[in-house]
Design brief:
3-stranded antiparallel beta sheet, 15% strand, single chain, globular, 162 residues, DNA-binding, two-stranded parallel sheet
DNA sequence: AGATTGAGCGGCA
DNA sequence: TGCCGCTCAATCT
């Protein structure tokens, strides 16, 4: 059976921030947080094209805490192309509300796994912000963030969690 | 198929 | 504080 696997990648520029988008068959399957130009180039999102500005704008607003992730998950046609385990982890963090956090350890217990396995899954979250992995923190610290810890700190501050 | 590696954690000095 | 051992999915070799 032939599988029509359209791949489309682009970078959208909004107010000096650059947002990477990757689509497969019209589903958003990977994105970046809004980043400066030097940083977005590291993540292999292709070239600046500004085709899906509407979707990028939602991610932009999400980053600046103007809308919430529940709304965005409902309005962006997306798909999590990840392993079964990673899916389980990402699916469970949908319930963490803005302004709240959970630790890797507590989440691991809920899912009957280990904290490091949870961190590993979150590290490869293909849809950051939309699946709010920044709300999962280390017990006595903040833990890591794949785009850099400074972004996690910014986000949690803006959300009022720290 | 076995070894190593983490966005971690609890215990013990 | 600092180190050590445990953990387990993912990623090497």
């Amino acid at each position: 059976m032939y599988k029509n696997n359209f791949l489309y990648k682009e970078i959208v520029k909004i107010n000096n921030y650059y947002i990477g988008l990757e689509f497969r068959d019209n589903y958003l399957v990977r994105c970046s947080i809004p980043l400066p130009k030097e940083e977005i180039l590291k993540y292999n999102f292709g070239k600046i094209n500004n085709k899906y500005t509407d979707i990028a704008k939602l991610i932009y607003k999400l980053y600046f805490c103007e809308i919430d992730d529940f709304y965005v998950r409902k309005h962006i046609n997306h798909k999590l192309l990840v392993s079964e385990f990673t899916f389980k982890v990402l699916n469970s963090i949908k319930n963490i509300k803005k302004g709240k956090t959970i630790t890797y350890g507590v989440l691991a217990k809920l899912l009957n796994t280990s904290p490091r396995a949870v961190g590993k899954a979150l590290n490869k979250n293909p849809l950051p912000l939309i699946y709010p992995c920044h709300r999962v923190v280390k017990k006595n610290d903040l833990g890591g963030y794949s785009f850099g810890i400074k972004y996690k700190i910014e986000l949690l501050k803006r959300e009022g969690a720290i």
